[in-house]
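Technical note accompanying the year-one report. For the benefit of new consortium partners, we illustrate the data format agreed upon in the data management plan: each record pairs a sequence with a structure-token string. No post-processing was applied to the example shown here.
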Amino acid sequence: METELQATALRSFEVAVIPGLLQTPEYASAVLSSGLLGPDEVVDYVETRMRRQTSVLERRKPPLFVAVIDECALRRGAPDIMHPQLDHLMNLARRPNILLHVLPIDAGLHAGQAGPFVIATTDDGDVAYLDDQAAGRLTNDTAALWSIWDTLRSVALPRRQTIDFLEARSWLT
């Protein structure tokens, strides 16, 4: 979280869920409830996540936030949770400092199959956060992730097509 607050740019790739900084409280609650957390813990985590969003995205000089989100993450969830979440994404995607890109299913297998990551650019250089089932970890060894990032961006939809895709929703059941 400290790195996010110092970052001038954040680049996030997610396969299974919408990035935490872009989640609505209802979506965050549904995602967190699907794991091993108890109801009180879920409430605490959601509140923390919402404060984190405000601290990072609403600060006086917010970072450039670029997210590549696998289409599968947009399809996963109950319609009553996903429709408001997609509205929220569309509103965020119109901000000048937030660039969203959907990685369409028809892109096939891709370099990001191994899992999600965030690359934070700070005045001190780049640091990456990798997440897995056991725990997350920070690393300064970002060269391989930059290569994966470039590959993912090359097969993801451009910003305008992503917004059109989110608006259409003909794919959401």
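Partners are asked to follow this layout when depositing records. Strands lie at 9-14, 64-70, 98-103, 117-122, 125-131, 136-139.
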